[in-house]
Amino acid sequence: MSQIIDKRYEFVLLFDVENGNPNGDPDAGNLPRLDPETSRGLVTDVCLKRKVRNYVELVRKDQEGYDIYVREGAILNNENKKAYSEFGVRPEDVKKMPKEEAAKLPEKLTGFMCKHFFDIRTFGAVMTTEVNCGQVRGPIQFNFARSIDPVVPQEITITRMAVTNEKDAEKERTMGRKHIIPYALYRAEGYVSAPLAEKTGFSTDDLALLWEALLNMFEHDRSAARGKMASRKLLVFEHSTALGTAPAHTLFDLVSAGRKNKAEPARAFSDYEIKIDRGNLPEGVKLIEMR
């Protein structure tokens, strides 16, 4: 049986996009997300978690303990009711239960949800809706991914030979637009908390699946909008203890990426040089290079 993780981890993920939009901003006409002060591209933590969820749902479909709570088309209250059904209780009957029994129920409900749903025990969830199953803070958290260099989104005009309505049948074609970034290398950073893993039941098997998802999530997320995307390098810092032996920011500073030729715009991963300062790795921390 897989054990609950007992070590702290941090990780750095480098991924790139070619002729695609890695994370559109709905408030800006679906333009690629940007930091307006630096023009560096952004990909939100929510976007990255979505891709992890989609990968796990794909490879662990119908496997007990690996259901996905936040998925397309899910009605969360109906998912919460599964926990009540497990213990033979209806949500509306909780107020009628004896106080001692009612006091123990929230912990049971939350425990069921963590055990049943991979993304709850990984990322946490707020389940305090009409069908209350509590609130969980997950052991895995991401920062926003940021491009190594400023990006210049391009607006591409596209045409379609078909039309939507009969009234437009005389038109030769209809026009549309898509937004792309010609090329960008992004850096995402993340954290794995052993104390929080103990509360949700996040195991060593779950951790291995997380690393697998980060390395392969773009392989099953192809679309015309996202272009060519790939995880290029995953660097994991493993601490020797649950609380860790070094601050996260000092570990992140050991990894840097820069263009080999700054006079030319980058158009491929080979245009970048990845540097890892292994000589200053703190005592009690092991660096695992997964790609």
Give an overview in words.
With 291 residues, the protein is of the alpha+beta class. The chain has one domain (9-289). The protein is 26% helix and 32% strand. It has 7 helices and 14 strands. The protein has helices at residues 45-59, 76-86, 99-116, 118-123, 194-200, 204-216, 248-252; strands at residues 9-20, 24-25, 31-32, 40-43, 124-128, 132-137, 140-142, 145-150, 154-160, 174-192, 228-239, 255-259, 272-276, 285-289. Strands 1, 4, 7, 8, 9, 10, 11 and 14 form an 8-stranded antiparallel sheet that branches. It has a two-stranded antiparallel sheet with strand order 2-3. Helix 1 (45-59) crosses helix 6 (204-216) and helix 2 (76-86) crosses helix 3 (99-116). The longest helix has 18 residues, at 99-116. It is flat. The chain starts with 8 loop residues before the first strand and ends with a strand.
Secondary-structure map:
Layout: E1 9-20, E2 24-25, E3 31-32, E4 40-43, H1 45-59, H2 76-86, H3 99-116, H4 118-123, E5 124-128, E6 132-137, E7 140-142, E8 145-150, E9 154-160, E10 174-192, H5 194-200, H6 204-216, E11 228-239, H7 248-252, E12 255-259, E13 272-276, E14 285-289
Helix pairs in contact: 1-6, 2-3
